[in-house]
Amino acid sequence: MKLWLMTVAALLTVAPAMAADLPAAPVYKAPVYKAAAPYNWNGSYIGANGGYSWGRFNSTSTADLFNTGAGSGFAPKVDGWLGGIQVGRNWQTGSWLVGIEADAQITGEKDSLERSMVLGSVPVGGGVVTLSQNVANEWALPWFATLRGRVGVTANNWLFYGTGGLALGHVKFSNTTTLVTDYVGLPANVTTSVAASLSDSATRVGFALGGGVETALSDRWTVKAEYLYLDFGSHTFLAGTGSDTTVRLHDHILRVGINYKLGTDDPIVAKY
To answer: Which of 229, 222, 253 is CA-nearest to residue 97?
Structure first.
């Protein structure tokens, strides 16, 4: 009995010491996730863009070289691709942004209309002479540029904005009228033609309105999608020639672009 009590006492003395020497059980700590800081839109940028345009040159002319044969009101569909560059600057305070942007575009926007008509036929000798007229018209908007303000709201890495300002565009019209004489008879068939060309162009000032969405890919690169409406007012082609026509010039543009931010050294800094 005495031996048993001594053994129990020894175990009670040694057990705490042994427990103190054992390694502590690891304590699990949940990872702490830190939300990424919202993108800082402040600063200057430069970029490039590309897209497509749906232009309308609504004509009020009844002049023969413009007329489709169905009366006035013909609207050339001056559609085509476009591409260009833009530069701009943003100032951001909290979630609000104001900015200014200028862009210059070259385009493939044009439409054409060709029409042929027989003016008459007369017998000559043993054959027939037929006189016909071929008319070819082309309208184009080869380039335009805009200078616009931007106002938007930011949400993390996204920017939603409206834009508006001045637009400058170059519009062109050309017409080629060809008179063709066909002689069918003996001793041979003969065709001759005489062509005359007219052209006119003007650089017009108008306005641009639209909006878009932009998102950041990194601390320097952003991409955007944008819609613009351009209106260059009305212009009279071939004024004083007897074939005058007044055309209202307006355009719808969808484009995408990419921007590279040059820096954030503006005096107004983003505040979160």
So the answer is: 222
Q: What does residue 210 show for φ and ψ, rounded to 5 degrees?
A: 175, -160
CA 125 – CA 192 distance, rounded (Å): 18
Three-point CA angle 218, 220, 221, nearest 5°: 70
Query: Helix, strand, or coil here: 128?
Result: strand
The residue written with tokens 């020894």 in the block is 10
**Fold adopted by 41-263:** Porin (2.40.160)
Closest CA to 260 of 132, 85, 128, 126: 85
User: Global pTM?
Assistant: 0.75
Ranges of each domain in the chain: 41-263
Residue type present at position 131: L
pLDDT in tens, 49-80: 999 999 888 776 656 555 544 444 567 888 99
